[in-house]
Write a structure and sequence with these properties.
199 residues, alpha+beta, six-stranded antiparallel beta sheet, two-stranded parallel sheet, 5 helices
Length: 199
């Protein structure tokens, strides 16, 4: 949770490629917080991912999940480290935060959403109005870093939506009640509005 605030502030001055963000052990050695491995990966993947975990102390399930997250990060790394950053929802004054990165050609994007201090009446998150997309391009939406059997965080996963709609109406996102729920979405362009009309 503190890293969300730290990275939000540091990114005002430094690009994501200059910020080393490590997944550390739980409970955290500084705050004492116990946070899900998914949450720690979802925060650290929004910059230069690193690991400070002892594989010998990890369960087989956590080790497999970590390997999958590292593979996912390698696929999105060019967008996160070389793309344009858009701050969607500030962690200051909200019970959640969100930001996104868009590739220079605007054909790929990665959206991060993190729950912060979320009480029982704060489970509603308005659709995230995305930025930096090409209005006429259509984007297929996927979610990464989901543990086996976990429910996704958006009804739009698997759909193909125009950049215009994602920027005007937004991406619907559901964060669970309580703290430490998070989501990472990957958007890939699959053509334009005109090309889909021809199909």
């Amino acid at each position: 949770v503190d890293r969300v605030l730290i990275q939000w502030g540091a990114s005002q001055f430094y690009p994501a490629s200059a910020m080393a963000c490590h997944v550390t052990a739980s409970p955290n050695h500084q705050t004492g917080r116990r946070t899900p491995l998914k949450y720690r990966f979802d925060v650290a993947m929004s910059a230069r991912l690193g690991l400070e975990l002892d594989p010998k102390k990890m369960s087989d399930e956590d080790l497999a999940f970590a390997k999958a997250c590292v593979a996912s990060y390698k696929a999105i790394r060019p967008v996160v480290q070389q793309g344009d950053l858009y701050r969607l929802v500030s962690p200051y004054g909200h019970s959640y935060a969100a930001e996104m990165f868009v590739s220079p050609d605007r054909r790929r994007a990665v959206v991060f959403a993190w729950g912060l201090n979320r009480g029982p009446c704060k489970d509603f998150v308005p659709p995230l109005r995305l930025e930096g997309l090409e209005p006429d391009l259509r984007y297929r939406i996927a979610e990464i870093n989901l543990p086996d059997g976990a429910k996704g965080h958006s009804s739009s996963v698997g759909a193909t939506v125009s950049g215009n709609a994602l920027q005007a109406a937004g991406l619907p996102v559901v964060l669970g009640k309580g703290d430490y729920d998070s989501a990472v979405f990957v958007l890939e362009s699959v053509g334009t509005e005109k090309s889909s009309e021809k199909e």
